[in-house]
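Lay summary. Proteins are chains of building blocks that fold into shapes, and those shapes determine what they do. In this project we predict the shape from the chain. Here is one chain we studied, written as its sequence of building blocks.
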Amino acid sequence: MANMEKTTKKANPFYLTKEWKKKRQEILDRDNHECQECKRQGKVTTRHDMVLEVDHIKELNEYPELAMDNDNLQTLCKKHHNIKHGRYYKFKNRPKKPRSPLINEEWFGD
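And here is the predicted shape, written in a compact code that computers can read:
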């Protein structure tokens, strides 16, 4: 049920307001356009490396009164934002499709 209650940009018009867009830019600037989780891990991830998002530390749908509170906002890269919200899956362990040994023969006449 918690997954159904998650607030997304598509579902919540809050993220389209001028006030949020201004606050979002303020937080990105405050955090030097660096993912704060990467920084805690000793890495530097900036807007030049990947997409950065402004995250509500305490969820917006549970704490709407903290929606614009600077202390409740942090910059995260997309990877860490997705991990936080349980949307990150490792594809490394996914089984690979078997490759046909005949591909070269079929296509290149070897």
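What the prediction tells us: The radius of gyration is 20 Å.
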